[in-house]
Amino acid sequence: MRLRDVVIRILAMSDTPLGAYDIARQVSRMQGRKCHANSIYRVLEPMIRRGEIQSIVTERSYAFIARTPCSLLWCICRNCKAMQPVEADAIHQSLDTKARAFRFHPAQKYVELVGLCQNCAGHDG
Known about the structure:
Elements: H1 3-13, H2 20-31, H3 37-49, E1 53-56, E2 61-64, E3 72-77, E4 83-87, H4 89-101, E5 112-115, H5 118-123
Parallel strand pairs: 3-5
Antiparallel strand pairs: 1-2, 3-4
C-alpha cells in the first residue's frame, strides 16, 4: 500500500487530528518498519494542496475531512486539546471579500479558535 493511502487511512480512522510524528509511529506499526516524520511531511503537503486533508496550524496536526461543500474552522481547547470542526462559510466569504477589496491574493487561509471546551470551561473556575 502506498504511503499516501496509509496516511489517509490513519487520519480517516482517527477521532482527532494527528501530528506528523504520531502518523509516522502508526505507519511504522502498520508496515513493520521505521517510518520517519520527514516522509510523512512530504506526503502531507500535496494532500493539503488538493484538499484531501486539512492542516490544523495551531496544533501542528492534520485531519481527514470528508468532502464537504462548506468551509470549516476549528475550535481547539487549549486545555484538553479537543478539536471540533465547525461550518464557517460566512466567515470564509467575508475573508475573501476583504482580500478582494485590498486586491490581495491569499495563498492559504487558516481560521482556528483557541479557548476552552465546555468540559474544561466548567473546571477552569
